[in-house]
Amino acid sequence: MVSTHPAPATVPPLAGFTVGITAARRADELATMLERRGAAVLQGAALRIVPLADDAELADATRGLIAHPPDVTVATTGIGFRGWVEAADGWGLGEDLIAALGRGRLIARGPKARGAIRASGLVDAWSPASESSAEVLDHLLVTGVGGLRIAVQLHGEPLPDVVEALTVAGAEVVEVPVYRWLPPVDIGPLDRLTDAALAGAVDVLAFTSAPAAVSLLARAAERGLRDDLLAALRGPVLALCVGPVTAAPLEAVDVPTVQPQRSRLGAMVRHLEAELPARARRLPVAGHRLELRGHAALVDGELRSVPPAGMALLRALARRPGRVVARGDLLRALPGGSGDEHAVETAMARLRTALGEPRLVQTVVKRGYRLALDPPGHCGDADE
Question: How far is Cα 304 from Cα 128, in angstroms, rounded to an integer?
Fold first, then answer.
């Protein structure tokens, strides 16, 4: 009979999975949340943030708004609005900026932006329930923007659709480029993260901004790997995004994404915590419950770390559970796909040791190996 015991509470929900982080801002915070849930984390920042105090474009936009105050200011993020005010303070323009913005109407895209506005001593006039730029745009167009000067605090990437729609409707739009993105100074970690994803060593790539997704794909294109990376993201590698704005560049190239209902880091991690274990393959094998995770397996709920070569063999066997898989096919499944059948025997011996249950994988003399799949009718039949 297959074990029906639930997984021990000591096995965290993301144990056995590897998550790649492309973020620059709050990357360590995200890594900590994932590691607390058992995930292994690889970091490869796809971007770097231009320090606000050194951003000449932001300084020029700030001086222009002080000289000609806006009728409407749209704050899209709390950290962006706060950073803008702090940078202006550093340039000796803080009070002038607050005074200029206070002469017009302020719109906050979400609660964090609203909090930043109020912390600066200003009062917001409106905020959408959806926290979306699209709803902000609809509100402005309905109320009328003809002849108005509108300042839009950007949130790391341009908002061409918003700017164009407001301009066509007769507004003068001033884009405020708060925390602009540039490629990382050291591209090595990003390249290593991409290589790991292509090698099957990463289960999830996490994105917290649209520019990170764009930058990752652009760098892959420079290396001649864009098509390979897209194939991985459309297949075994899950693209996890903090929200629809972040997901847009990936979905535009037919990469499926998963995202939480609320665009927050914590919500994103909780969503992954529910999503990823549900995708794991589960099989009743030799009277045990076998679950395949990214770089590990659960045997009757106990986490077993498996070497990469062993995991490659286990996945090849699991694709044809109960059937014999020839040594030649298993050899091609090994990382690198070269060598001789002795490499299969060595990797298989290590796999059995790692699983702690040698009977899970049977040797079929002169033919190959098979997972000892329990017959139908045993409790815990294989997942469909």
Answer: 47
For domain 281-371, say whether CATH 3.30.110.30 is its number: no
φ and ψ of 287, to 5 deg? 80, 10
Positions in the chain whose pLDDT score sits under 50? 1-9, 379-384
Using DSSP's 3-state secondary structure scheme, residue 156 falls into coil
CATH class of 18-48+184-279: alpha beta
The 10 Å Cβ neighbour count of residue 21 is 26
CATH architecture of the domain 52-179 equals: 3-Layer(aba) Sandwich (3.40)
The model's pLDDT over 135-157, given as tens digits with 9 standing for 90+, comes to 999 999 999 999 999 999 987 66
Which amino acid appears at position 321 of this protein? Answer: P
Tokens found for residue 145: 């923007």
Q: Quote the pLDDT of residue 322.
A: 92
Domain ranges (residues) in the chain? 18-48+184-279, 52-179, 281-371
Give the separation between CA 265 and CA 134, rounded to whole angstroms.
21
Put residue 86 in one of left, alpha, beta given phi > 0 → left and psi -120 to 50 → alpha: alpha
Long-range Cβ contacts of 277-281 (<8 Å, 24+ apart): 277/13, 277/14, 279/238, 281/318, 281/383
Q: In what order do the strands lie in the sheet with 281-285?
A: 281-285, 288-292, 296-299, 302-305
